[in-house]
Amino acid sequence: MSRRILDQSSKLKDVLYEIRGAALVEADRLEADGHRILKLNTGNPAVFGFEAPFQIVRDMIDAIPHAHGYSDSRGIMPARRAIVSRYEQVPGFPAFDPDDVYLGNGVSELITMTMQALLDEGDEVLIPSPDYPLWTAMTSLAGGTPVHYRCDNDNGWQPDLEDIRARVTPRTKAIVVINPNNPTGAVYSREVLEGIVQIARENDLLLLSDEIYDRILFDDAVHVPLATLAPDLLCLTYNGLSKTYRVAGFRSGWMVITGPKKHAEGFLLGIQLLASTRLCPNVPAQFAVQAALSGVQSIDALIAPTGRLHEQRDAAYEALLRIPGVECHKPQGALYAFPRLDPNVYEIHDDAKFVYDFLVAERVLLVQGTGFNWPTPDHFRIVTLPEARVLTEAIERLGNFLSSYRQ
Predict the structure, then answer these.
(1) How many CB atoms sit inside 10 A of residue 281's CB?
(2) CB-side exposure of 169: number of CA atoms within 13 Å?
């Protein structure tokens, strides 16, 4: 008997997540065959020897006997109050209360909820290019149209305000800001952020600010929370424990809603409805939030000039610059670098093939730049989480590979 073909939904046509794409499938196959693969594709601190702060683990363990039931759909009150207290310490951050906080199974779930609550078919969302591809994917899955605005490689990856302004249409509903930025490591200037807020103000746009790396900063970089510049606008700020506290597997994120809400009652009720339909976030992981936010901030030692994350950032940056024809802006935040391959030196027409070929040859997994909705095949992303000597060796292998690579 012939079977009806079950193809994937047409909603997935524009969904891209190359961070865990075809090259990772091959990497897993190679590992199954006994090869050792250095995976520089995901920002997963645990696999590179970063331990979760013991206070967080202890509080979760202590809470498990009492964490086997559903919680409030927004999340447990102690965690939401701790998040309120965190932002009360940020100068100029608009006031909000625990009912304006939603906990999620990672920020990813909260992004999905936001887009599902916000978008009708054909509504547009301004998203940076390069982007963290989940934003584009969830916009498409919700029936919206992602419109990518340019971040300027020649200006330290700062967003191009004129390009943003030119892309606003009557269907534009929101603008996404990822700061500190994944994949580029850029930290946006106050002037650029003020310009984005002014565009949103002029066009009555919702602000969606992804600030998951706000405490991973290097040198003299300063993070300016977008909500502090927009008390008169509805702004959703996304953050969580996964990177700063090295507990990505706990899937513990939050979303904070600030600014005027009267005009957005329907949208906010939609978020509340979706929060209820997922019942609640993972309850044991919620008990990690208060311990994380109120305790010693161990990230400070890691990003200091002698700290491991700082040294690894420096090692990756310096090794990349030693490769002829490779350019890279020094990352000022986050856990990544986004180098450029000079097209006059390397004629790479298919960057996914380049990443695949490098994996097969050298057993190192990167992610191609087009996987972050960058329009040309001349960039790639590298994770800076391995120890400095491991990064230096991997990038030296990349240089040797490129010296004879042809497509």
Answers:
(1) 29
(2) 12
Distance of CA 363 to the CA centre of its chain: 25
Q: How far is Cα 302 from Cα 171, in angstroms, rounded to an integer?
A: 43
CA–CA distance, 225 with 13 (Å, rounded to integer): 34
For the chain, 407 residues long, the average pLDDT of each consecutive 10-residue run is 79 70 85 89 90 88 87 92 96 96 96 96 96 95 96 95 97 98 97 98 98 96 98 97 92 96 95 93 91 91 96 97 96 97 93 94 94 95 96 96 92
Structure tokens at 353: 């093939």
DSSP tag of 32: H
Architecture per CATH, domain 54-294, reads as 3-Layer(aba) Sandwich (3.40)
Mode of pairing for the β-strands spanning 380-383 and 367-368: antiparallel
Q: What's the residue count for the chain?
A: 407
**DSSP letter for each residue of 209-252:** EE-TTTT-B-TT-----GGGG-TTS-EEEEEESTTTTS-GGG-E
Give SS3 for 204: coil
Neighbours of 49 (CB within 10 A): 11
Amino acid at the residue 351: D
Beta bridge partners of 254: 103, 239
> Rounded to a whole number, what is the distance in angstroms from the first to the last CA of the chain?
45
Q: Tell me: the pLDDT tens digits for 266-287?
A: 999 999 999 999 998 988 899 9
Q: For domain 10-50+301-404, is the CATH number 3.90.1150.10? A: yes
The model's pLDDT over 8-62, given as tens digits with 9 standing for 90+, comes to 787 777 776 666 678 888 888 988 989 898 999 988 999 999 988 888 888 888 8
**What is the three-class DSSP state of 173?**
strand
Give residue limits of the domains in the chain. Answer: 10-50+301-404, 54-294
Helix and strand counts by DSSP (H, E) for the chain: 13, 15
How far is it, in rounded angstroms, from Cα 370 to Cα 368? 6
Distances (CA, A) of 171 to 114, 177, 241, 299: 17, 18, 34, 41
